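Reading group handout, session on sequence-to-structure problems. Before we discuss, look at one worked example. The prompt was deliberately terse, the way you'd type it at a terminal:

> structure ABC transporter substrate-binding protein

The input record follows.
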Amino acid sequence: MRFERSHTRRAVALTAVGSLVLLVSACGGGDDGSSGSGSGSSGGALEGRGPITFATGKDTSGNLTNQVAAWNSQHPEEKVTVSELPESADQQRAQMIQNAQIKSDAFSVLNLDVVWTAEFAANRWVTQLPEDQFPDLGKLLPSTVDTAKYRDKLYAVPVTSDGGLLYYRKDLLDKAGVQPPKTWAEMKAACDKVKALPEAKSMSCYAGQYEKYEGLTVNFSEAVNGAGGVVVGDDGKPNVDTPEALEGLNFLVNGFKTGEIPKAAITYQEEPGRRAFQEGSLIFHRNWPYVYALASKTDGSSKIAGKFAVAPLPGLKGPGVSTLGGHNYAISEFAKNKATAADFIKFMSSEERQKANIEKTSQAPTWASLYEDATLNKQFPYLAPLKASIETAKSRPKVVKYGDVTTAIQEAAYGALSGTTPPKDALSQLQTKLSTLITQ
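And the output record:
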């Protein structure tokens, strides 16, 4: 998702409000009687034309203005105004939920983390979309289209995808005579050899995102999956109190204990981690594709331009497993000018616009054809492994009470990483909590 890039700490108050809203909605507060029965609106005609508002997280790529300007120049009577929400995914979600709870038409199109689709659809906060009005869905990566559906009905359109990647200092690995690692043990061995170099002795081995926010859910899930475990099984039931999950969690816990993961990383969200890597503090760094363009800048903002490369995430015994990220565009159930909103989504999700976006931001597209584009592959040599990462990625739990579920995961993982809860106890407690949340 990737999810929105953030270098702010989690807004506890906003998240608490979001959780309260979820509780009310679960008791029927989200049904205003206008959407019919079942899982939301009927997906009928999308009516109304005129100006709309696009609610999205803070644009750290700097390219959203260009994308929206391209629409506005062609549709002067149906201009889009960007309502920029905070960088923090938790804060974005809380603000969108508050807006929906009061049935406000302030937001027309919502930029949703892929894992929010089920929650927003089940609570009837977004409009069901007629699939025949979005004929290009069959040209997108199937895994991304799946994230836009709830109970086999379309509620959003995937515009960007995401798979976790391992960024590494190619210059230093080459000098130390080691290859990109495929396992966690190989990564540790590579770090030992690199740190023997005079210029690398003060560097840390590895970091991801470990602050108590959505990124921790992703990093925890990837560690568990990379060891052969699951957080929630294919049967929809939690199964996290297992030896495999413990192996994955211990990979992170031991990293903090040994110093291979720097202590400061307990506060890392995407942006602080990216900056640490760009400043030359990390040998390996787990992050999303968007980092590639920023770390490659030659304007002085990156000390490692031309010195890094990208590989698949490592796992316990072989290549790891990414958590599926990305963003879907949905129409607020309470929006005016839904016909314009639908056309804006088609425009932003088109092959042309997605190509223009990856060229500027390195964000992962959802069009399958763009991963085969020769020009893009020359500019972004990681596209082939990224496509494989997305196609084999595992989704976070698709549950209506996702806010409560991800909070439980974050609290358990953070307790173990910070040393306040033994890893085995953290997983046992998490299993109990998830069993309660997911079966309700």
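Points for discussion. First: Confidence is low (pLDDT under 50) at residues 1-42. Second: Residues 36 and 271 are 42 Å apart (CA to CA).
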